[in-house]
Structure to design on (624 residues):
């Protein structure tokens, strides 16, 4: 037998350290902290969406500003486009692909063997996503303000705008986590991007509701993003209105659906072992 | 969502009282996946401070058993207690007291080794001071040096295994589960893991359940060995007890032709041997006086016109126990050189 002994056993023996139960909030924040520390190592997951959002923000203004503002009296197309650009930037940004990797490389099992609550693993990732989405909103908002958009609701409205964008990001991300936990398959998680298109384009992303016609108008009626965009736009152009409440109601409904799917997928994965 | 594993199929919980001082106790523990029974009524009692080796081939049910004992998988039948707590109804208490290094190193490749250990410490409720203390001790133990600051993705297989072991030890568990801890490792890394397992047990008194498909690993490390095959525990005892159960010396004859057990018994009826088994071209004979018997065996087989390719005398191994219990070899590759005392190659056998 090899006589090489590397273990400083005397030190290990002297340690009186023992595991102890932790609180739910502690576990959520610990997992969120891990997720946030990983973001700088995965910049390719967060930088492109912002660049794409900024690109379309600028191009759409250049393309449609004159047309819309000349045909709709008192219309501010930059303010109209700003929520679209923000949602474009934050929708689908999540750590769900990282969770799939955890499942695949067994680290998820290591987390499951710790005494923390299972839901803390999921919520920790979601909390990190909210923080990332809020940060991603800032440069797009800054660009909008630099291009001349204002905020009728002031600083408080701007904060609510950021919270709304981050909350929508969370609600949409839930679908990705549900697929990640259900399948453990990165390709399946990536395919959730397909949901992005009906949510973001079958709505009032580019022109006001009254300019939509036919089937697209019907689709926009049933698309929760329509109400989210209306609420966020009202913060910038109209002031506090009932539209803000409808926006958060729509976010809550989508979030309830996606988070329910997440929890069901988590239960299924834990049960399957 | 509950954090307690739910027993499948509404199984009844046995009411037998737990064994005092048992660190791990399983009663009729079973797990099925649809029609497939992966673990079939395993009974285990492992005392505190014991190293117990669960030996079996791939697919025998070792990992499934460990996953149930680690609270990762709910049993579909039976019950188990680890560190005094039921793995189903008191899963959180079990998790506080166990550490596990599973078959594949369960690591986040994007974290550094130090980050991973610190995160583990926080998840087990350690204070910052305690985390610092443990990370320092474990870093020294696994001897990864500056690599601890590098992303785990850059580690070799052996380094990952050692970090995985350290992650399992952050909170000083009472019971440690090691699922095939050396599979895929080079001999040097394997020896290091063996040393660490021994020291954890000898100097910390840690109870260790390790699964392995390596005979020499179970033989070298485990105080007691359980042989598992087809999801069932087929034999259990100290390595010495298990080997004694097979017989004294073994004469292994490799033949050019197959010979069934009945024919072998007829041919060797006049000799002081017992035919243990005839598997493929291999004839395994048990005898109390190996040195005196090996020659007459060669003569008897030659007289019957059977060509010998190889004739070996050795003491029983755990593989012989496995063969005796299951009718199959665990891994013929591990027979070579193990406890071999002498070998005879008949003239003209031509290896």
């Amino acid at each position: 037998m090899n006589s090489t002994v590397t273990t400083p056993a005397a030190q290990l023996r002297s340690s009186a350290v023992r595991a102890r139960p932790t609180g739910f909030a502690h576990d959520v924040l610990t997992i969120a902290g891990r997720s946030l520390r990983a973001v700088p190592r995965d910049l390719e997951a967060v930088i492109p969406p912002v660049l794409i959002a900024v690109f379309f923000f600028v191009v759409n203004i250049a393309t449609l500003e004159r047309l819309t503002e000349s045909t709709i009296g008192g219309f501010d197309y930059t303010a109209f486009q700003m929520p679209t650009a923000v949602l474009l930037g934050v929708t689908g940004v999540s750590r769900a692909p990282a969770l799939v990797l955890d499942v695949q490389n067994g680290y998820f099992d290591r987390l499951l063997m710790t005494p923390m609550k299972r839901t803390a693993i999921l919520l920790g990732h979601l909390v990190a996503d909210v923080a990332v989405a809020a940060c991603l909103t800032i440069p797009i908002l800054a660009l909008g303000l630099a291009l001349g958009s204002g905020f009728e609701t002031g600083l408080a409205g701007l904060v609510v705008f950021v919270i709304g964008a981050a909350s929508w990001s969370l609600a949409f991300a839930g679908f990705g986590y549900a697929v990640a936990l259900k399948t453990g398959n990165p390709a399946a998680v990536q395919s959730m991007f397909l949901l992005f298109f009906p949510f973001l384009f079958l709505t009032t992303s580019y022109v006001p509701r009254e300019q939509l016609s036919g089937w697209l108008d019907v689709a926009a009626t049933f698309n929760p993003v329509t109400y989210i965009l209306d609420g966020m736009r009202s913060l910038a152009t109209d002031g506090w209105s009932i539209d803000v409440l409808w926006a958060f109601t729509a976010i809550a409904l989508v979030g309830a659906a996606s988070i329910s799917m997440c929890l069901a997928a988590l239960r299924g994965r834990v049960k399957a072992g | 969502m509950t954090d307690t594993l739910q027993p499948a199929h509404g199984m009844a919980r046995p009411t037998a009282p737990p064994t005092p001082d048992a660190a791990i106790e399983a009663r009729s523990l079973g797990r099925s996946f649809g029609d497939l029974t992966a673990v079939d009524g395993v009974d285990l009692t492992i005392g505190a401070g014991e190293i117990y080796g669960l030996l079996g081939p791939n697919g025998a049910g070792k990992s499934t058993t460990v996953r149930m004992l680690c609270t990762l998988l709910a049993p579909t039948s039976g019950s188990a207690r680890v560190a005094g707590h039921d793995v189903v109804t008191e899963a959180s208490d079990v998790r506080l007291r166990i550490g596990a290094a599973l078959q594949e190193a369960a690591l986040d490749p994007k974290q550094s080794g130090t980050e991973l250990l610190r995160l583990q410490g926080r998840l087990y409720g350690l204070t910052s001071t305690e985390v610092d203390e443990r990370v320092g001790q474990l870093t020294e133990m696994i001897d990864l040096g500056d690599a601890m600051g590098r992303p785990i993705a850059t580690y070799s297989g052996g380094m990952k295994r050692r970090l995985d072991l350290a992650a399992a030890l952050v909170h000083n568990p009472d019971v440690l589960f090691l699922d095939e801890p050396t599979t895929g490792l080079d001999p040097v890394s394997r020896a290091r893991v063996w040393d660490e397992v021994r020291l954890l047990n000898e100097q910390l008194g840690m109870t260790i359940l390790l699964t392995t498909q390596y005979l020499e690993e179970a033989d070298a490390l485990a105080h007691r060995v359980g042989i598992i095959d087809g999801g069932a525990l087929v034999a259990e005892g100290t390595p010495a007890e298990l080997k004694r159960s097979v017989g004294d010396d073994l004469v292994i004859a490799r033949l050019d032709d197959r010979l069934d057990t009945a024919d072998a018994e007829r041919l060797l009826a006049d000799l002081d041997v017992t035919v243990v088994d005839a598997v493929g071209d291999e004839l395994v004979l048990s005898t109390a006086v190996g040195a005196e018997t090996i020659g007459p065996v060669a003569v008897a087989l030659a007289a019957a016109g059977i060509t010998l390719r190889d004739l070996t005398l050795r003491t029983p191994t755990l593989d012989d126990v496995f063969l005796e219990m299951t009718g199959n070899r665990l891994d013929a590759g591990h027979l070579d050189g193990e406890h071999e005392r002498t070998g005879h190659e008949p003239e003209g056998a031509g290896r």
User: Anything to note?
Assistant: DSSP finds eleven helices and 15 strands in chain B. Residues 7 and 74 of chain B are 6 Å apart (CA to CA). The longest helix of chain B spans residues 187-204.
